[in-house]
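Students often ask what a 'structure token' actually looks like in practice. Rather than answer in the abstract, let us consider Glutamyl-tRNA(Gln) amidotransferase subunit A, a protein of 504 residues. Its sequence is given first.
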Amino acid sequence: MSDLIRLPAAELAAKIHAGEVSSVGATQAHLDRIAAVDPAVHAFLHVDGERALQAAKAVDEAVAAGRTPASPLAGVPIAVKDVLTTQGSPTTCGSKLLEGWHAPYDATVTRKLLDAGLVILGKTNMDEFAMGSSTENSAYGPTRNPWDLDRIPGGSGGGSAAALAAFEAPLAIGTDTGGSIRQPGAMTGTVGVKPTYGTVSRHGLVAYASSFDQAGPCARTVLDAALLHEVIAGHDPMDSTSIDAPVPPVLAAARQGADGDLRGVKVGVVRELVGEGHQPGVLASFEAAVAQLRELGAEVVEVSCPSFDLALAAYYLIAPSEASSNLARFDAMRYGLRVGDDGSHSAEEVMSLTREAGFGPEVKRRIMIGTYALSAGYYDAYYGSAQKVRTLVAREFDAAFARADVLVSPTSPVTAFRIGERVDDPVAMYQVDLCTIPSNMAGNAAISVPSGLSADDGLPVGLQVFSPALQDHRGYRVAAAYEAARDAAQGGALIHRVPELEVV
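Now compare that with the structural description of the same chain:
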């Protein structure tokens, strides 16, 4: 079992397609691993072993019959963040308000995974409605970081990242509204990708902030992320924000990058995303990563994006404003939790009682912030001004990309902090998203790849690579080149240094 659960997804898929191992065997190995370690990690909210094994059996039967696999990842197990609808299993968004709710349809991403022959193990834990940076805001309890079970795995998609780091799944799907794929990737020593906004369908993704939300791949290697990216990306007429454009050649770029040659590539270091507020160990790891890129032949320049200093504050006005509108759909009338429906309360009272009981503190905080920002007399001062900052951030990205092919920064200014350490300080929690939010504001692509362990505490650090919109492949090339050099210099993949978890 231990060998199967530690294989990269690309290697596992090749063995399944060659008949060397079975998808059923690989799926069962991961189900056994979940049973053994997830009581401690709590990466999953729901596991559907029976359906997973049925899906795996269908892949094995196709291989035995000599049929071409449905995709390069057919037969490989995968975990899905519980914000994407999956017909036949619960979709809770980490909230009591949707406890036990079964969606009547699959999200487009879910359907693409199934059509490609991937085996969905279950749904992963998350901050409620994707509002959080630590996965402590889940109504079902926090997820723990496999590197240190007393620490957070990042958020909001900490469940997906922790499942990878705990070897409970070789692949996962996350969503990234302000860094919720990349930041957990950095904090768990895994790879997380935010594709260009509009290149992966949002149909069936329960909305937090619609102009930011973007599903993307989570993996343990850049190549695995690229393979998954090509499965889930593409135009979808069911999503009005979907871009009708070819999927960037991310797989070819990842394979090219693995050769380790970055001559001719210009890398821009974003001045505003390096320095104040960063742990010393994070900065040291970043500086070593930049030096490694130079050794691979890249030209490194410094770029300045002054409005990035305002991006965090602007984001936490725009995103809550969209949330206050999006979450109005949870009105206790159509689906989900209903409190006080005993005939003695009006519809308005039932709605109020339900939202009071069903939403957690962070969700309520953001709804109130957003409602205030949109209210008469304050709209221009808050929401309108924040949108102007968003425009400036996009323009400064464009100017920076005129000087460099990709931009780089640390993914998170800090490593994984202890559970409970920041829950009573929302501003300190929000500042963890300092480096990731600009990309969500502009809609371009970004990838986080592990850059080693911090000398401060021995915990993972991430290198973030930004790419222009629809040029996602640039980031994959640079990340893959860096990953190969890092593994060679450090004597193997970082992920295999995760401490062994105590099994039940």
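One point worth highlighting: The chain has a mean pLDDT of 96. Ask yourself how you might have guessed this from the sequence alone, and why that guess would often be unreliable.
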